[in-house]
Amino acid sequence: MTEAVLRPHAEHQFADELVLLAERDDRPRPPGWRLSPRAVMVYLLGGALSDGTVITPKYVGPRRLIEVAVATLATDRALLLLGVPGTAKTWVSEHLAAAVSGDSTLLVQGTAGTTEEAIRYGWNYARLLAEGPSEQALVPSPVMRAMRSGAVARVEELTRMPSDVQDSLITILSEKALPVPELGTETQARKGFTVIATANDRDRGVNDLSSALRRRFNTVVLPLPATTEEEVDIVARRVAQIGTSLELPETIAGLEEIRRVVTVFRELRSGRTADGRTRLKSPSGTLSTAEAISVITSGRVLATHFGDGVLRAADVAGGIVGSVVQDPVSDRVVWQEYLETVVRERPEWRDFYRACREVS
Amino acid sequence: MAAPAHERVRIFGIRHHGPGSARALGRALDDIRPDMVLIEGPPEADAIVGLAANPGMVPPVALLAHALDGGEERRAAFWPFAEFSPEWQAIRHALRAGVPVRFFDLPAAHQLADEPDRDRPAGPEATGPETTPTAVRPEAASGTGDGSGGAAEAVRLDPLARLAEAAGYDDAERWWDDVVEHRDGGPSPFEAVAEAMAALREHAPAMPEDHLRREERREAYMRRTVRRALKDGYERIAVVCGAWHVPAIAAGLRSTRSAGAPTAAADDRTLRGLPTTKVALTWVPWSYGRLAVRSGYGAGVVSPGWYHHLFTAPDRPIERWFAAVAAVLRAEDLPVSSAHVIEAVRLANALAALRGRPLAGLDEVTEAALAVLCEGAELPLELIQRRMVVGERLGSVPDGAPMVPLQRDLRDEQRRLRLNPSATAKEADLDLRRPVDLDRSRLLHRLRLLGVPWGEPAGSGRGKGTFRETWTLAWRPEFDVRLVDAGAWGLTVRSAASARARALAAEAATLAELTALAERCLPADLGDALPAVMAALADRAATDTDVAHLMAALPALVRTLRYGDVRGTSVEPLRTVVDGLVVRVCVGLPGEVSGLDDDAARALLDRVDDVHGALSLLDDADHAARWRGTLAALLDRPGLHGLIEGRLTRLLLEAGSPDDADGPAGGIGDRMARAVSVGASPARAAAWIEGFLSGGGLILVHDDRLLRLVDDWIGGLPADSFTDVLPLLRRTFATFEAPERRSIGERVARIGAAPGRGPADDETLDSARAAPAVRTVIDILGWPARGADPGRPRDDGRGWA
Predict the structure, then answer these.
(1) Distance (Å, whole) CA B725 – CA B224
(2) What's the confidence (pLDDT) of residue A173?
(3) pLDDT attached to residue B564
(4) Mean pLDDT, chain B, as a whole number?
(5) Which tens digit of pLDDT belongs to each residue from B107-150?
């Protein structure tokens, strides 16, 4: 069955591993958990079971962060995963939910149009009109369903929701109860219920969390890839995947160009050159790995359709300038400085310098 | 008959700066009530150990041994003690009980004399406290630089860490707590530690030859001291030393008959003929920050503040820790509630449970603080790291402590340079071309950096030429106190000033502070501090978004660059910084010039003038071209303030560019015509004129065309605009010299008298008559022969202006 869908849920895709882990797991499990915290760690970070079965790693990154995340869930606190786009926040949240409660589908997607009903409950209006307020007319939200079953509810892009909608989570997180005044009842969360939210702290158009809500979360910041190599690897793999689904013809690898884009992004993002000897100003944009991927992808499209099929400096220059210069005044200064003080000094980047001068 | 030696001596193998060790040792000492305490440390300090009982002595402090000869390359070693150091607890215990304390390590006289044999980084820096890995033990302060020794060294420096690691712990304190502190009512842990050390020593990797030799000497000396204490008839001798040394000392006591055991005679042989140097010892204040210095072997105490907390907290260390962290964050106006603290404690405990640890340790509390109290933000965590985990505790020593080396060094320098301190002010005129005067000047500049203004520079030295300096010298008594304070920075005036300059560079908040610091470093000849200052400067310049700051910094730097050579200081790093600054100013200036009001324009104008002057001084063709290019590009921007546009036009005119170009922008005349034409408001035109003429009015005397434009413009102004513009014009013309004004007036009068006459009619020169005078002027100016053809006068006088 999982073969037919485009993207199976984590608990289906890795069902075998979850079953194996549950069988071998002899440590105490917190109430409502499918696995012990230790086994959750193994599921996420990979490892070998006692009988030699290998569990694939789901997240590659600092172990400590995942430990803090799991410990947070074990103390029935809500978990907030922060980070710029492309740092696997959603990925981690999905797998945590799959491992802890075996269900990653209790999901609320935060958008500017998310309403309170998506967090609390809605009504089946036909029944509401026909029967008046009743348990049957109530349409529970994913959060309410998670409370009833003692599972993990996921809220994606929490900061994209309007602030008043965000705040409807406060009661749920502090009282662990959701009153339904229309029926005079309330739903009390069963043991095992908790919330994993993801949010993006360097994006535009976000609504900051109120401090009352913030206080109810433990925060884990997922970092950008630690080294250039790691990031080049992620970008190259992702670009290849996207290329396949866009059915782009195979361009010549262009790994050097990818490395250059990643280097530029990393240097501007971190405010210092790769050799650590020169400080730089950072532009206002996030320059995330995700943006590097899109620069390379559009560069490939350019190279394929308008160039000679080889990814060259000129194909990525426009994309880079577009990602860096988001604010026409201050970012332009940042970019010009970078171009004149860093790029220009690198003899092997001559072509890139020229290409950037042309489009700047 | 006295009891056998090994019953009279109790050896306590401790972990240096281990709060667990300190607590265990304190209990053991209370138990056995020794009548003599031997502590690992330089025996020369026996005389001043009594000061530790003085209420003015507050840890962290350090014993400082410094060689009395050796000049610049003065060597020193530190033995730091914190409240939670077992050695410190042993000293305090003995002094409280009135029991003699002796230090029984190899004397500092030998340790310091031994230095040059070894492969160590040369130069005065190696002995400065900033770079010496003093946080561990003196052996580290004098350690070797080779990597192979490093691993072995690490085992020896913190053997308990190695044992903890073998047991699967990453924190030796925690392992020690788990295996030692939490054992209920068991025997004293020191027996077990001694056994473990014996095993560890057997399997330790081989150490380099010179290490081994030094270790043998130290342990031989330790045994000798123990034997002497036995001979002196003490009955309960407590020996406190690093756990590593326990088996070696015990071997000397127990089995004199067994083969291979070190005998008194053998030890004497080992210690015979060691090199010696004259040393002095004193107590100096220390800080937790310096205890945590991690240069060298990575064996520093990473978290003195946390250890201090563990040692002093009576109970519930985790809860107390988070409460203290919350207090620190609240002091910085970060909202942290009690609910936060509760959740942080819960998370720390959950993490400890997840990791299979009985109690939360530093890792757990740090991660819990990040996730809960700091809400994932790194900045407050750094605050916690600095204030709490490392701690800002500063020690102090009583007044009776002997003189610090810095005072001694200054006295030597004063003697060498025949520059005696006196309370009455007197003038000193220094000729920097003489080496002795140059050294004097450097000394005075260095002292000023250290906050000891013994000499005040009299007047501005710049007027007198670059090789003369006049100082007013007056020694005030409080300078001695400041020297003691400054003693923390280094052992010699030079190294202390360097270290201070580096620290100032790290702290400096603004670019201007840094340029000022760089200007102070050069005359003080602090070549080794300069790279740090320059790096800070480059960093600051890179991130400073205010171009005005960069422009303000440039002239001072260029000045330094230009005149630094007089003193023979290397200015290469400075050049790199200046190069970067010029590029940044050129890139950033266009963004700065739009939307300025009069005051801002005037301020910017001064900056532009300064930079322009600095760049002509720098005399670098690339930079000059870049700067001209930037100005030229600016000139055509719409909405430029009149003042600035006028000034830029003038600057470029002097640099020779716009007038030469007959492009679409036109020559200077066209520009001026445009600026003062009817399309421009009178106020803007007046501002333009002011900017254009702010460098002097001579140009109007010599270029009739421009004069005529100004004249026509003023003449054509409507009456009400004229009264508006008059003050502006008056201000402009008032800055000119009187003769300039007069000749402008004369020319204007002539324009009025003979309207329609071209300037050339009036200006035709008789070249034959002018030739000799022109030639003489050319000779005087030393111009090349290019202009030597006086037969063809220029069509206007501008060339001579």
Answers:
(1) 96
(2) 92
(3) 62
(4) 76
(5) 888 877 765 443 333 332 233 333 233 333 333 333 333 333 44
One domain for residues A107 and A248: no
Whether the upstream peptide bond of residue A162 has omega within 30° of 0, thus cis, is no
**Are both A146 and A237 inside the same structural domain?**
no
**Tell me, what CATH number does A98's domain have?**
3.40.50.300
Please answer yes or no on whether B351 and A281 come within 8 Å at the CB atom: no
Distance from CA of A7 to the nearest CA of B (A): 31
Q: Compute the distance between CA of residue A5 and CA of residue A26 in angstroms, rounded to an integer.
A: 34
Matching residue, tokens 């002497």: B228
With an 8 Å Cβ cutoff, are B583 and A341 in contact? Answer: yes
Best of B587, B589, B623, B637 to disrupt the A interface (most A CBs within 10 Å) is B587
Higher pLDDT residue, B94 or B595?
Answer: B94
- Give the Cα separation of B161 and B183 in Å (integer): 19
ipTM of the complex: 0.78
pLDDT tens-digit readout, B27-38: 888 888 888 999
Question: What's the number of CA atoms in the CB half-sphere (13 Å) around residue B98?
Answer: 0
Q: Which of A170, A186, A221 is the last residue of a domain?
A: A221
Judge whether B8 and B34 are in contact, CB under 8 Å. Answer: no
Q: Which residue of A has its CA nearest to B371?
A: A219
Regarding whether A235 and A295 lie in a shared domain, the answer is yes
Interior/surface letters B31-57, b for 16+ CB within 10 angstroms, e for the rest? eeebbbbbbbbbbbbbebbebbeeeeb
The answer to whether A360 contacts chain B (CB < 8 Å) is no
* Closest-CA distance of chain A to residue B509, Å: 16
CA–CA distance, A282 with A324 (Å, rounded to integer): 9
CA dihedral defined by B704, B707, B712, B717, rounded to 10 degrees? 180
- Give the residue from chain A lying closest to B588, CA to CA: A333
The beta-carbon neighbor of B351 closest among A38, A67, A219 is A67
Please check whether residues A310 and A246 belong to one and the same domain. yes
Tell me how far apart the alpha carbons of residues B578 and B558 are, in angstroms, rounded to a whole number: 7
Instruction: For chain A, say whether B351 makes contact (Cβ under 8 Å).
Output: yes
Could you tell me which of B722, B630, B637, B652 has the C-alpha nearest to residue B685? B722
Question: A329 to chain B: which residues are within 8 Å by CB?
Answer: 591
Q: Are residues A172 and A232 in the same domain?
A: no
A27 touches B at CB < 8 Å: no
Compute the half-sphere exposure of residue A346: CA atoms within 13 Å on the CB side of its CA: 16
Q: Which of residues 325-344 of B touch A (CB under 8 A)?
A: 335, 337, 339-340, 343
Q: Which residues of chain B make contact with A335, given a CB cutoff of 8 A? A: none
Residue of A nearest to B589 (CA): A333
> How many other C-beta atoms are found inside a 10 Å radius of the C-beta of residue A216?
18
Average pLDDT, chain A: 86
Which structural domain range is residue A176 located in?
A: 72-221
When scoring B341, B372, B382, B550 by the number of chain A Cβ atoms within 10 A, the one with the most, hence best to mutate, is: B372
Measured between CB atoms, which of A38, A64, A217 is closest to B367?
Answer: A64
Average pLDDT over residues B296-315: 72
CA distances from A300 to A17, A57, A118, B485 (A): 37, 30, 40, 64
